[in-house]
Amino acid sequence: MVKKIILIVLGLLLLFPGIGLAVAGGGLLALGGRSGDVQSGFHTVNTPTSALVTDATIVNDSSGVKGKTSGATLIVNARNSAKPVFIGIGPSDEVGQYLAGTAHSEVSEVDLRPFRLTTREIPGSNIPAVPDEQLLWVAKATGTEAELVWPVVNGDYRIVVMNADGSPDINAELQLGMKIPALFGIGLGTLVAGILLCLLALGLIIWGIMAKRRPPAPAEQPLELPGFSPR
After folding, report:
1. β pairing state of 116-122 and 104-111
2. Cα 50 vs. chain centroid, distance in angstroms?
3. Model-level pTM?
4. Is 172 helix (H, G, I), strand (E, B) or coil?
5. Domain extents for the chain?
6. Which pLDDT tens digit goes with each residue over 72-102?
């Protein structure tokens, strides 16, 4: 009886982590597919300020694979048919100096699916210099259909979206995305590990259910000696 209980309990303890791994692996495969692309699609963003700013790590983490972005590429698209848009990535301290005293919107949280930006406005009265003329950017793009592609590197960087002339009142369609080559392998490996763990757990549970109880030991018979009869 004790063996049955141990097998069933052990199977249940393995089953739930196995289900979790399988679900997580399936989610990663659904998120990035074989290509490892995670994109938000185009969504309208607007702010009355001169810049929309976010940490690059926030976009990385919003892909759902935090800590697995080695070799990843960040892709930002912005379009506005009426006015050119600027996208830039620069070191956080230099971006802070560039926007010092300028009204801008800080993005504190990014969700790609469904797309949602959580922002707060930083007040200011300065008019920023034309962004494309600054030397601080490690990557930049400008145009009515601007696309920035940046291989992610270690460091503290910020993503900035502005009107190309630095004027306030940004109104553009924005798309954020990550290309993570290892995402398919990570998802597939996690899914397979979860399935194998579930199979092992089910095997232990079935073994425990089917295990037969040990038959009771036969009762001891009194030893009879020839020619002797108890009184």
Report:
1. antiparallel
2. 30
3. 0.66
4. strand
5. 2-27+185-210, 37-180
6. 888 899 999 889 999 999 999 999 999 999 9
